């Protein structure tokens, strides 16, 4: 008799789970398993792998297809120290661009980079990083579990834009521009990292959209002055990820739902917020709310036809829903593995199939994809 697989996610089945081809927008889905060794997969609507990249670093979060057809990839810079227990879980350090055949065309390194990076063209990068706060500067950060900062250091977020030569063309510091009282850490969070920016996106108007997870806020930062031009109201989002700007100018957010005010059952949802009023104008959650809960990570992408691709990151579950909430495609990542760093393995001892974000692309966005690989 074969022993029972003790990995719950693997035991429940992987690969293509559901498909309604009439309702799905079709296309190809890109993802990078977080515990992989640098593999990035492109699958068709039926879950068949049609293209693979093998990069020289394990994922430092995720990969994207650029407008020129190349792959933008964030990798983990080897040999770096753990600044705090969770640092190895979400750090990066290497931001590269690769050709469809995997050839690395350019690479930029910053050992303090984490979570997100945008390739802006011509070698320019916009990304999140850290700086240490100590003494009075660290003490000034409000909230969090008292005494949980290692060696009295609070690592604060920065946002940087660099040119192809590595020169800094724009930067922003949370320690300089965020009000410490208004943007206090949740009381149950360690004081190791403030405010934990897990996403940074250039907006159409040139300003910057950012997600501040540990203070439950999505903000718009003025590129000209660094001030906060807009933020979500208290209680609208809870430990959220991956805000983006759909074509209509609203903000689409993966709202994780950890510590959501007024809710005794945690659940995740995807919401669309009207910036002018601050109101939620569209929402998706599972019909059984408790069946969809991602306590960390996650993303949502609004597709060209109005459907939304959702990444339930910890479960390696990717799914597509229509505007009325009908789930028309579902796929579970079949690639499992353990984290190599002992600090992360101790916190996450199982073998997850997690991905940070997945992205959907049309055939027109992948001109190099051979006709033989097209379903």
Rg for CA atoms: 20 Å
Give helix % range. Answer: under 10%
Low-confidence stretches: 371-375
**What proportion strand?**
35-45%
Specify the overall morphology: globular
**How many strands in all?**
26
Query: What is the helix tally?
Result: 5
Widest β-sheet, arrangement of strands:
1-25-24-23-22
Summarize the main sheet.
5 strands, antiparallel
Termini gap: 39 Å
Secondary-structure-derived class: mainly beta
Q: Mean pLDDT score, rounded?
A: 95
Explained architecture:
With 375 residues, this protein is mainly beta. It has five helices and 26 strands. The chain has helices spanning 8-11, 87-90, 136-139, 174-177, 342-347, and strands spanning 15-19, 28-31, 39-43, 49-54, 59-65, 71-76, 93-98, 104-109, 117-121, 124-133, 154-162, 168-173, 193-194, 197-202, 208-212, 217-221, 228-231, 241-244, 251-255, 269-273, 280-284, 299-302, 308-312, 317-321, 327-332, 359-361. The protein has a five-stranded antiparallel β-sheet with strand order 1-25-24-23-22, with no helix packed on it. Strands 9, 10, 11, 12 and 13 form a five-stranded mixed β-sheet that branches. A four-stranded antiparallel β-sheet has the order 4-3-2-26, with no helix packed on it. A hairpin with a 6-residue loop joins strand 16 and strand 17. The radius of gyration is 20 Å and the shape is globular. The protein starts with 7 loop residues before the first helix and ends in a 14-residue tail after the last strand. The model is unreliable at 371-375 (pLDDT under 50).
